[in-house]
Amino acid sequence: xxxxxxxxxxxxxxxxxxxxxxxxxxxxxxxxxxxxxxxxxxxxxxxxxxxxxxxxxxxxxxxxxxxxxxxxxxxxxxxxxxxxxxxxxxxxxxxxxxxxxxxxxxxxxxxxxxxxxxxxxxxxxxxxxxxxxxxxxxxxxxxxxxxxxxxxxxxxxxxxxxxxxxxxxxxxxxxxxxxxxxxxxxxxxxxxxxxxxxxxxxxxxxxxxxxxxxxxxxxxxxxxxxxxxxxxxxxxxxxxxxxxxxxxxxxxxxxxxxxxxxxxxxxxxxxxxxxxxxxxxxxxxxxxxxxxxxxxxxxxxxxxxxxxxxxxxxxxxxxxxxxxxxxxxxxxxxxxxxxxxxxxxxxxxxxxxxxxxxxxxxxxxxxxxxxxxxxxxxxxxxxxxxxxxxxxxxxxxxxxxxxxxxxxxxxxxxxxxxxxxxxxxxxxxxxxxxxxxxxxxxxxxxxxxxxxxxxxxxxxxxxxxxxxxxxxxx
Length: 474
Fold this sequence. Notes:
Strand content: 5-15%
Largest sheet: 6 strands, parallel
Order of helices and strands: EHHEEHHEHHHHHHEHEHEHEHEEHHHHHH
Shape: elongated
Mean pLDDT: 85
């Protein structure tokens, strides 16, 4: 397996670029199919969240793979390659595995330690499986990444290092509007949740736990809005009623997959005016609005309105950058490093397995041939004698092969051990086609991840090059 990652995230690109590069569900599917049609890639997966867009591929050519994945990412995101390139990072082989495991643990998230990424990784793998772009290699890799992420959350206090994006955003909004923690500020308030996906579901559940007085869910598919509203004891509203519902809301959380604005400045201005008129001249607190969508749902011009306060991904990114990181983060980093080493050793060891199997198959053929020859020369052997001779010959061959095959597996699992499979094939004159047949039958995707290529490689022009500073942030 030669894993290549090409992507951009909140660490290397401003939210405005991430917003423009965001991929819809249909776009992700088309991108994956185009990656598979490209020559260097045999497997592909795409991870697209509110703060990262990454392509994962099993490739046989590094430079061609970087060029192809960068170009396809630019094509499907709608951001020109020249503009996109300065924000791209590239990870290869062991370094790519390290990056994915770090992502799974929440170390690379906008809010360090958040656990929502595990669900997003599951979705990434699920789409790859559905479209048959994730084969044996990426299936094994992502399943292991999910296990590593769960291990980090169960064995350390990484959860204390950060909150979910939803919770962190609500806290920032409550402090900005009310000057108090969200648990205190949100109690009894009317909340409007726009969207019914995983992020909106988490927002609705968080609002319900905080004691919101009423939760209204608006979504383009009314049935999904009804299901979510029912789960939190709220009510559903059609999107056509969004403007009216907004005028009664104290809290708005919006996270849809829309490509355009869902709440325009004019819509919000009319809602704030309605609230002011109903107050009879009494002061009215601004609507607290949390926009978690990429691209954004709420018009940036709302920032200039007196009757509303918007907390968006840019606000969250700035606040999260200044948040203290718990000591548990160091423990998670140790887990990631150990898991990457173990995964690499397992991959290298798996690489030699088909050669060992082919060697033993060749030995079995030699034994069978010699026993058949013996039968011809000594036809008078009775069944007991023939069985004893057969067992003795097989035992001798097994003992001769045992130590070298066990040792070669151990050596192959160490860094730099990739050449032992080639040495075995050369020393025993094994038929490459026989080894390939074992690989296809036993482990279709057994390409090695040599640790020598663990460094991050820059992306340059149409094919490559992140600056050293970008590389350091990735």
